[in-house]
Amino acid sequence: MLDIKNLKASVEGKDILKGLDLQVKAGEVHAIMGPNGSGKSTLSQVLAGRDTFQVDGGSVTWDGQDLLAMPIEERARAGLFLAFQYPVEIPGVSNAYFLKAAVNAIRKHRGLPEFDAMDFLTRVKAEMKAVGMKEEFLYRAVNEGFSGGEKKRNEVLQMALLEPRLAILDETDSGLDIDALKVVADGVNRLRSPDRALIVITHYQRLLDYIVPDHVHVLSQGRIVRSGGRELALELEEKGYGWIGDAGEIHAAPPAAGGAQ
Amino acid sequence: MKTATPARKIDSFLDQEYSAGFETLLEADTLPKGLSEDVIRVISAKKGEPEFLLEWRLEAYRRWLTMTAPKWAAVDFPDIDFQDIVYYSAPKKKDGPKSLDEVDPELLKTFEKLGVPLHERARLAGVAVDAVFDSVSVATTFQKELGEHGIIFCSFSEAVKTHPELIRQYLGTVVPPSDNFYAALNSAVFSDGSFVFIPKGVKCPMELSTYFRINARDTGQFERTLIIAEEGASVSYLEGCTAPMRDENQLHAAVVELIALDDAKIKYSTVQNWYPGDKDGIGGIYNFVTKRGDCRGARSHISWTQVETGSAITWKYPSVILRGDDSVGDFHSVALSNHRQQADTGTKMIHMGRNTKSTILSKGISAGRGSNTFRGLVRISPKAEGARNYTQCDSLLIGDQCAAHTFPTIEARNPTAHVEHEATTSRIGEDQLFYAMQRGLTAEDAVSMIVNGFCREVFKELPMEFAVEAQKLLGVSLEGSIG
Ligand SMILES: Nc1ncnc2c1ncn2[C@@H]1O[C@H](COP(=O)(O)OP(=O)(O)OP(=O)(O)O)[C@@H](O)[C@H]1O
Ligand SMILES: [Mg+2]
């Protein structure tokens, strides 16, 4: 489904991704872990098409297509969804309006009839219930004044509504209380299906108790330096990032700090 | 007459004789370019106006000759040659249409393109339309139905003929000819416009609407609108304006006067999308308008709502004089300037009565190389015990070559006055666009969504159909502002 080869990206002349390889197949769940500033959010935003990052080399193929050549909204319409580490506030635009516009843009692209106001409300209210959001959030401005946890729930709500084929969750679990964490995990698990894939970026192996990954990768200094199964996450939790290969390049935190924000 | 800038041109103009005499002028459908007492006499004669009105025009003209064009607005444009303008132009017609069937089908087609619902659709929609095509009002619908309520809604020229006493009583009482350069010019040469009279105690049963359209080449438009709501009366009036593409800049200097007596309410809404000129600022309308409401009676209420997306240059300050005790004035505005448009708008709230209250809500959007200036004046006179004003000015910038300026002025001469001012400036961020586009929206949709959100508080004040139109307009006007 997604094939990233030797991807290099920079911002303002600073190299961040330095030759990253990753393959994601339909039905798989990949977890990406790694120290602060290692390039996890950069990777997710480059995949989503943010042009503040410059792609300096490598390729990304999405269902045989050149993903990097697609405009941002085309990637979204093709089913790529990014749950933002820092969801953006849009004052003046109601959440309901925003969600409906997004859902309909994507439905239209998929050849489905657009939701009218009633269909949409029925659908969105059901999903809000599932992620534990009160209805009032429909009528507030997008993310404006939402608490950290509320913003993250709103991301999960959008993911559920847009039914992406590949969802990238960038630290959606950070700053969540344990109940909210279960809500997020639940949302993700409901989405899991043989034709969908997920990339879960996290600092905490705890999330992976709920969302069991098929693969775990460690991103460090702009590269995937280690890949393994579920047990890699446990090992990281225990030992931190310091012990992982690529020695010399890594001046990561001491073991005890692993998983800290 | 010797000192004013335009006067110099006028002097030289007066030296030359009209090649065509007064009589020929009277037969022409379009007068030659230029302005003189003769031209004014012709305009007045063509309209069959009573003597008092001709005198009033001439008086205004003489005043105008002594005045200079204002230069203080934050707009920049070449001097206007007032002798290079045609002051009267009428569409060709024989005896004037008696009903819609007699109206030139070409004209109707134009209105249809503009979305003016003249036919049965209008009836269903409950909108009465007084359509102004260049200088002459060509069709007025619903007069009869309104007449049953004692409401007068017709072209200004018609009102001059049928109700000269009302014209004489109210014309120029809110905006006197001496008020400013463009008001004086308008008073001298105004061609047509709308007249509304709502008698005592009557609530107008439908929205009244006028669509203005500037069409003939080099034709200055000088509309005159007068709306009077007697004691306890109320009316909602919509003004829509569109102009086709033109290469030369066209001058538009209208005057609108609103008068509300005791307990009366007038709501005046405008959606203005005159041709703003192209990307480089070529062409487009110059719009210099004097709009003022007079809350003459106690507990009267005048409310201006406007959405301005057009004109190359806009210079416009709808104002309210809060004369009656407990009267209320509102100003809700969205002004957008894109490319090289310049908008200098704002409002004045003049508090004179006790416990008067005003609200100013201004939303300025600048995109491209547009510049948007808001000027607000709140004046609380010594007698305006307990007066209150709330002003909110928000600016939204799209891109980094545009500008927004706010100049609030508060003159409080009564210690009990309560005046509050809030202002914000925000820029549509790259992060907001990326977020919306990651959800499948195009950049255009994302911008128009954010802009509409920004304007929502004002759109809320517009009648339904107008709100929809305003949203579409903003979308169209913002085309090409990003990317
Ligand atoms: N717009 C930018 N301008 C300059 N530097 C940037 C920009 N965006 C990211 N960086 C830098 O790129 C590096 C990688 O950042 P990124 O956000 O991808 O890290 P991360 O792995 O997601 O970290 P965290 O775990 O803290 O979220 C950091 O050093 C960061 O400061
Ligand atoms: Mg990050």
TrEMBL record, chain A:
CDD domains, alphabetized: ABC_FeS_Assembly
A Pfam cross-reference name: ABC_tran
Alphabetized InterPro entries for the sequence: AAA+_ATPase, ABC_transporter-like_ATP-bd, ABC_transporter-like_CS, FeS-cluster_ATPase_SufC, P-loop_NTPase
Domain of life: Bacteria
Acetylation keyword on record: no
ATP-binding is among the record's keywords: yes
Keywords: ATP-binding, Cell membrane, Membrane, Nucleotide-binding
Domain ABC transporter: residue ranges: 2-246
GO MF annotations, alphabetized: ATP binding; ATP hydrolysis activity
NCBIfam families (alphabetical): sufC
Similarity comment: family membership: Belongs to the ABC transporter superfamily. Ycf16 family.
PANTHER family per record: ABC TRANSPORTER I FAMILY MEMBER 6, CHLOROPLASTIC (PTHR43204)
Name the UniProt record assigns to this protein: Fe-S cluster assembly ATPase SufC
UniProtKB/TrEMBL annotation, chain B:
Recorded superkingdom: Bacteria
Pfam families listed in its UniProt record: SUFBD_core, SufBD_N
Occurrences of domain SUF system FeS cluster assembly SufBD core (ranges): 212-454
Residue ranges of domain SUF system FeS cluster assembly SufBD N-terminal in the record: 144-204
GO biological process, one term: iron-sulfur cluster assembly
Family per record: Belongs to the iron-sulfur cluster assembly SufBD family.
Protein name: Fe-S cluster assembly protein SufB
Name of the gene: sufB
